[in-house]
Amino acid sequence: MQTVIRTYSGKGAKELFDLLEERAADVEELLRSVKGFVGYTLARSGDGGFSVTVCQDKAGIDESVEKAKDWIEKNAGNTGAAAPEISEGSVLIHLK
Question: Could you tell me which CATH number the domain at 2-90 has?
Answer without folding.
Answer: 3.30.70.100
